[in-house]
Amino acid sequence: MRPLLGLLLIFAGCTYALYLLSTRLPRGRTLGSGEDAGESRSLSFPSDLAELRELSEVLREYRKEHEAYVFLLFCSAYLYKQGFAIPGSSFLNVLAGALFGPWLGLFLCCVLASVGATCCYLLSSLFGKQLVMSYFPDKVTLLQKKVEENRNSLFFFLLFLRLFPMTPNWFLNLSAPILNIPLMQFFFSVLIGLIPYNFICVQTGSILSTLTSLDAVFSWETIFKLLAIALVALVPGTLIKKFSQKNLHLDEASHVGHLTVRKDT
To answer: What pTM was computed for the model?
Structure first.
């Protein structure tokens, strides 16, 4: 009971802090005018592409006056989602590309995903082990077996799980301390393993932020850019897959495959 209460208190505190950040905004032309303009408009997580496009336009304009605040708000929102294993980080990856450009956005997403996943690891280690074992005993057992079989090449196995997830990223973050995965290996496996996924999302956001009409989506220039992004992202995955086939024990991957859900981190 105490671990659950502690987790709820931390979650409530972080939620309230993020709420204050998203509602007590410094005054800016985009969010209104007047003495209380910063308090008259609140921001929320986008739930679809239309809301994402609207939010990116608002924040890009607002960033001209309050660059540091937008940066703080984005980092806080990303860490909040990652730290508490809340789905929807893909929208924030796309938003990063629209706000910060393809390369700074990619750097931010890779670092924030790693730090956020590490926070989730630590929260699970301190408060969530019993909860994870109570709700997902079979899944933990299956994953534990594969981790032990690949203990000698654990880092590459973790990379494989990020690039070709047999289990969703949020569950891997929660179960990692139960599986006795070293924290540093966990951190760098997230940092490196999610680069292709983050790259695709961020580059897509950067491209979408430059489009002025729906017709531009189907232009040859945009199509070639998207194809180039896909090809670049396939390279590390192909190399890891070849290594995995030779060095990792993946013969029972089909039995673990039923753990797979949507790829949110």
So the answer is: 0.80
Rg of the chain over CA atoms, in angstroms?
A: 20
Q: What residue type is assigned to position 131 of the chain?
A: L
Q: Which two tokens stand for residue 191?
A: 């940092």
Mean pLDDT calculated for residue range 68-88: 93
3-state secondary structure at position 262: coil
**Is 221 or 36 the better-scoring residue by pLDDT?**
221
Residue indicated by tokens 């599986």: 179
Q: How many CB atoms lie within 10 A of CB 112?
A: 23
Question: What are the DSSP calls for 158-194, one per residue?
Answer: HHHHHHS-SS-HHHHHHHTTTTT--HHHHHHHHHHHT
User: What whole-number distance in Å separates Cα of residue 133 and Cα of residue 128?
Assistant: 9
Say what the alpha-carbon torsion angle 52, 58, 61, 67 is, to the nearest 10 degrees.
Answer: -80
Token pair 């630590």 in the structure block, residue: 122
Task: Give the amino acid at 55.
Answer: L
The residues near 27 (Cβ < 8 Å, ≥ 6 apart) are 33, 34, 35, 37, 38
Q: What is the pLDDT of residues 26-75, one digit of tens each?
A: 876 555 444 444 344 568 888 887 888 888 888 988 888 889 999 999 99
Tell the burial category of 210 from Cβ atoms under 10 Å away from its Cβ (0-12, 13-18, 19+). exposed
Q: Are 192 and 111 in contact (CB under 8 A)?
A: no
Tokens read off for 117:
């996943």
